[in-house]
Amino acid sequence: MSDTSATPSMTGYAPSQAAPRADASFGDRRRAPTSSDIDPWDLLRAIWARKERLLILFVLFLTVGAFWVLTLSPSYVAEAQLSIKPRSGEVSRFDTPERPQQADPISIESEVQILTSGALVPALVRKLNLHQLAEFNPALRNSGVFSQFMQIFGLSSKPKPATVSAITETVLEKLSVYRRGESRVIAIRFTSGDAKRAAALANAYAEIYISQQVADSNALNSEATLWLQDQIENLRDEVAISEAAVEQFRGQTGLFPANNTTLPREELSQLSAQLVQAQADRSSVMARLSLAKELVDTEGAIDTTAEVLASPLIQNLRQQEVQLRAQIAEMSATLLPSHPRMRTSQANLQDLRLQIGREVAKLIRSMENEAHIANERVRTLSERVGRLKGRMARLGQQEVELRALEREAVANRTLLEQFLGRYEAASARASADGSVANASIVSRATVPNSPAAPNRKSAMLLAIIGSAIGALALVFLIEAMAPGFRTAEQIERQTGMPFLGTMPEISGAKSSAGIAANTVRNPYGHIAEALRRLQSNLLMARIGGKAARTLLVTSAVDGEAKSGVSSGLARLMAQSGYRVLLIDADLRRPGINQTLGLHPTWGLSEVLGGQIEFERVVMRDHSSPLHILQAGGQVSNPTALLGSSRMSWLIYALVQNYDYVVIDGPPVHSASEAPVLSQLTDVTVMCVKWGATNRRSVMRALKSLAAASTRRVGVFLTGVDRRQYRRLTDDDADV
Q1: Three-state SS for 81?
Q2: Do 372 and 401 belong together in one domain?
Q3: Are residues 204 and 347 both part of a single domain?
Q4: Which tens digit of pLDDT belongs to each residue from 541-586?
Q5: Is residue 233 domain-resident?
Q6: Could you tell me if residue 388 is inside a domain?
């Protein structure tokens, strides 16, 4: 039953206005919210706080790395060296009169490709019985306990015998062939788990290569000798036939050699030269004639031609003309043009001009005659050259045929001589060098004293460095991916809201009911002290110059222990002598009754609905002077009910009768009542579970509350790991 013995009377209250709005001066906004989710210094402090975990991961990684280094199988490398020499004794090289030159880079690279092609590997496998060794035969390797177990029960088949190609591939994987710098030395390296086997492989492979070179050289010499013998016999027949054809053609055409030429060809050469000279002379005459005709039409310009300048008569007449013009000029100064002397002089000047014109005409006719003679000479020579060319065409065709026959005979004779000479020389070299390869072993492989790999010192150093980096990276990743808030600095920097304190996670007080019970059972414990620090922050809050009287406790999501915080805080405030009322305003999922161990009964929903009076439903806590108003029955529209004017009137009336009113509201993301209740209260406490609640969820919840009201919101961390928190903040007083 409800205990109303100490319940203030609220009959007939009728407030004229809603509760006053909060002033923005509440709290301390020490930093503006930032967009960065991770602060480097916080991250470094968090990593240092997990130094034990970092050390454990380092030891774990180092153990794995050391085990890997110690279990690595040693591998030995042995190297044999070959010197490449020019091939000698090859009969097929008949085209070079001298011994072959030293091997060039291309031929050396070709030998390297031959050594790595795998053509010599089957011989190596047969010589050293590599197919009987598990190192080179995959079918002989131990398949492991699990694979053997599967084979026993028929779940997998036995491995098939390795093919020649598979063994060859394995051998080639352990073979390395390369050229030593710019020299003619080729190094053959083999890697094996056995030092003696590595040296034996390198030496045997070099010996097989040399033996193969000798066999190839002998086979090539034999084939080339037979081929050259056939070619020489064929060439002898061709030489005899070609020389007979030349003599027969000369007898038929009469083209016998005489001073390296013939008379018609010499005559044609001379006539051609004369024709060229005549054509040049004609061109010169025609050019001078054309120029003289053009200058006749230009007064005085004809005097510049070479023919006029070379004529004494014309030059004499020109001098007389100049003198007469000078006299006329002198007389014109004193005499009139009609004077007899002036007329006589003008008549004499006209006669001189006529004589000069007649002389020039004679020169032009002379040039025309000269041009005609040149044309006739060119025509005559052209006709003679044409007739001689027709004759030489027939003779030239016969000479062409003769030269072709002669060239063929000479070529056959030269080729036969070359074949005979090279055959004799190469046969001599083949008999002397046929058993010598074009390579020799200059350095045999020796048994290595120490393995080439692994380098355990370097591998261990690498394992230590890798373990340190891996452990640091893993811890860094864990901290970077941590979803929740861990320190007060994070909260104030990223949310801009005041930080109200922390509540540690205590064994037996992890649920809301455990938190509320712990404040009574252990009034001086860590839970109670954390809530007292929260109470102190709230008691010092000033709204419009007045103390805050109404408090909303909410969270972003479920599971943040908000009901435990509101219940424990209300109990402590009531035990301090204040008149305190705790209201369960989570009409969807009430939690105060379970937290305080009360039997569900009528409450807030019935009071707001006008079904019952406040005095009949308010209850007293069995462990403290606290008064409690449960949520009551479920309603269809909790948001509208809590946002109604009756709720405002109720809050106003309760403030008149209680020192503090603590409201346990629903989570912001679970219902829409929290922003509505935030408008009706002086202070809102956002409970956030330490290191668990997603930061973006908290930011969205705070943004939703800020959008609904100007009332300030403080953040209170719950479920804090005291040991980790002290390492992160270096502050023992916070928890």
Answers
A1: strand
A2: yes
A3: no
A4: 777 778 888 989 998 888 888 888 988 889 999 988 899 999 988 8
A5: no
A6: yes
Q: Is residue 235 pLDDT above 70, yes or no?
A: yes
* Token pair listed for 365: 């006719």
Q: Could you give the C-alpha distances from 655 to 14, 268, 588, 648, in angstroms and in order?
A: 13, 142, 25, 11
CB crowding 47-83: b at 16 or more within 10 Å, else e: bebbeeebeebbeebbeebbeebeeeeebbbbbbbbb
- Quick count: other Cβ atoms within 10 Å of Cβ 33? 15
Three-class DSSP category at 255: coil
- Domain identity same for 674 and 541: yes
Q: How many angstroms separate the CA atoms of 434 and 440, rounded? A: 14
Give the containing element (helix H, strand E) for 80: strand 76-84
The answer to whether the CB of 592 falls within 8 A of the CB of 564 is no
Residues 536 and 653 occupy one common structural domain: yes
> Could you tell me if 77 and 452 are in contact, meaning their C-beta atoms sit under 8 angstroms apart?
yes
Q: How confident is the model at residue 609 (pLDDT cuts 50, 70, 90)?
A: confident
pTM: 0.48
What secondary structure does DSSP assign to 494-532, as a single string?
HH-SPEEEEEE--TT--SHHHHHHHHHH-TTSHHHHHHH
* Distance, CA of 485 to CA of 462 (rounded, Å): 36
Q: What pLDDT is attached to residue 661?
A: 93
Q: Write out the two tokens for 197.
A: 């086997």
Q: Are residues 466 and 421 in the same domain?
A: no
For residue 15, being part of any structural domain is answered with no
* C-alpha span between 99 and 254 (Å, rounded): 47
What domain count does the chain have? 4
DSSP element (H, E) containing 234: helix 195-253
Per-residue pLDDT band for 408 (boundaries 50, 70, 90) equals confident
Both 151 and 173 in one domain: the answer is: yes
Q: For residue 284, is it within any domain? A: yes
Q: Which residue range(s) make up the domain with 324? A: 263-433
C-beta neighbour count of 637 within 10 angstroms: 10
What is the SS3 string spanning 529-557?
HHHHHHHHHHHCCEECCEECCEEEEEECC
Whether residue 40 has a cis bond before it, omega within 30° of 0 = no
List C-alpha distances in Å: 249 to 102, 163, 242.
49, 70, 11
Distances (CA, A) of 44 to 36, 58, 475, 477, 484: 15, 17, 10, 12, 16
Q: Are residues 610 and 711 in the same domain?
A: yes
Distances, alpha carbon 615 to alpha carbons 20, 225, 593, 620, in Å: 25, 130, 18, 11
Tokens of 701: 């919840």
Number of neighbours of residue 197 by Cβ within 10 angstroms? 19
My answer on whether 357 and 376 are in the same domain is yes
Q: Whole-angstrom Cα distance, residue 200 to residue 194?
A: 10
DSSP secondary-structure letter at 453?
A: B
